[in-house]
Specification:
This protein is 35% helix and 16% strand. By secondary structure, it is of the alpha/beta class. It has a single domain, classed as Metallo-beta-lactamase, Chain A, CATH 3.60.15. The strands form 2 sheets. It has a 7-stranded mixed β-sheet with strand order 6-5-4-3-2-1-14, covered by helices on one side. Strands 7-8-9-10-11-12-13 form a 7-stranded mixed β-sheet, with helices on one face. Strand 2 and strand 3 (103-107) form a beta hairpin. Helix 6 packs across helix 7 and helix 11 crosses helix 13 (318-327). The longest helix has 41 residues, at 29-69. It is globular. The protein starts with a helix and ends in an 8-residue tail after the last strand. The structure holds zinc ion (2 copies). One zinc ion is lined by residues 93, 141, 143-144, 336.
Length: 396
């Protein structure tokens, strides 16, 4: 798209008049009028093509929204999604297409690919056709944000993240310009909290926290000593879904993308509150006051949180558990545990006993219900994460 735009500019900008220009001046009036009629026909034809294209893109939007959010919740004529639902459709790592009170957004923006292709059943074109209004970023690493710039350009969505995320996305979009808003001050410390006015009818809070990081074993933790949580890698996905060269090239291009700090997002619609954290850092050592900030947030009903992280080798699932203890959700949905980078990652199912064992350290009365999603069968499967905001369950 950017290349086409540049080509157009070069054409308009310059050089000598084409030879045809001189010939045009010598044409008689009849010939000119004939040309005008021809031009009018051509314009009409272009108009027809444009209408057809708008119609087909509108029907593409309805079709992908029905697949991503469930047929019964998407208006077949307008593509509007049921405003009384919060629906999450997982597409790998902590990336979700989400309908929140009728607003269609993305939480993080990367379709896992590069070591394989087609393991996650959704495409770049699908996510553009989905027509999200916003892309919420947790942090800027490639597995969370490598598609954010092209998806924002293709769909017109506004990226929301830190100013550092915006700087990286803008650089990746060049020479095109995209819409990105930093919702916290640049360089602000963990524990910074901001209310974000982006979606009508949805209360949104952004909290700066800490990306996962390795720490020495915490011998005082009730879960100590933690067994190293390093499930065996699974290369089956690579064998079954061989990588396309362009996907590998895309991955290599983005391997060095910067974190740009990390934000946790909370969304409230009616009686229902969703919290999404795309990393879980060692708050105990690096920013213990953030645990107080999390405890002070409005009550969360469903927390979708990353469980894979750099501290799992020495401290297991301690950090994800501490987030859960501070946030105290009714339902907990682990993520970032799927096979997004075979060799580093494995299938999510192998994390199930590890996170179950960790959550068992929380007293039963305070322990959330575990809703475990598994790859690849729960990718783009909205029925596993559809929540009715009016349900009395959230008020209990
Ligand atoms: Zn990261
Ligand atoms: Zn990650």
């Amino acid at each position: 798209m950017a290349a086409l735009r540049m080509f157009g500019m070069r054409q308009r900008g310059g050089g000598s008049a084409p030879a045809g220009e001189e010939r045009y001046r010598t044409e008689d009036r009849a010939m000119r009028s004939h040309r005008r009629v021809g031009a009018a026909c051509a314009l009409a034809a272009i108009g027809t093509v444009a209408v057809i294209s708008v119609q087909s893109s509108a029907s593409a939007t309805v079709a992908i929204r029905q697949r991503v959010f469930g047929h019964q919740y998407v208006d077949a004529a307008t593509g509007a999604v049921d405003a009384d639902k919060v629906i999450l459709s997982w597409f790998g790592v902590t990336n979700f297409a989400a309908a929140i009170g009728g607003h269609v957004v993305l939480l993080d923006a990367w379709i896992p690919r590069g070591e394989y292709s087609g393991y996650v059943p959704i495409t770049h074109d699908d996510l553009i056709a989905l027509q999200p209004s916003h892309i919420f970023l947790g942090h800027g690493h490639f597995d969370h944000a490598a598609d954010s710039a092209p998806l924002a350009l293709g769909s017109g969505a506004t990226i929301l993240g830190t100013p550092e995320h915006c700087t990286q996305a803008r650089r990746q979009a060049m020479p095109a310009t995209l819409s990105c808003e930093g919702v916290v001050p640049a360089g602000s410390p963990p524990g910074t909290v901001e209310d974000v006015d982006a979606l009508d009818g949805v209360t949104i809070t952004a909290v700066k926290h800490v990306h996962s990081a390795a720490e020495p074993p915490d011998s005082e933790d009730p879960g100590a000593p933690h067994r190293p949580s390093t499930p065996l890698p699974d290369f089956g996905a690579v064998v079954e879904h061989l990588p396309a060269p362009q996907d590998t090239a895309h991955l290599i291009t983005h391997l060095g993308d910067a974190e740009g700090d990390t934000i946790l997002w909370q969304f409230t619609v009616g009686d229902f509150t969703l919290l999404w954290n795309d990393s879980a850092g060692p708050l105990e050592e690096r920013a213990p006051h953030v645990l107080d900030v999390l405890r002070a947030l409005p009550e969360t009903d469903v927390q979708v949180g990353a469980i894979m992280g750099f501290n799992q080798i020495t401290n297991g699932m301690r950090d994800p558990r501490m987030y859960v203890e501070a946030i105290s959700p009714k339902i907990y949905v682990p993520s970032h545990h799927d096979n997004w980078a075979p060799g580093v990652s494995t299938r999510g199912e192998r994390y199930r006993p590890i996170i179950e064992e960790e959550l068992a350290l929380i007293p039963a009365a305070e322990r959330p219900v575990l809703r475990f999603i598994s790859d690849p069968q729960d990718y783009v499967r909205p029925e596993v994460l559809t929540f009715d905001v009016d349900s009395s369950y959230w008020a209990s």
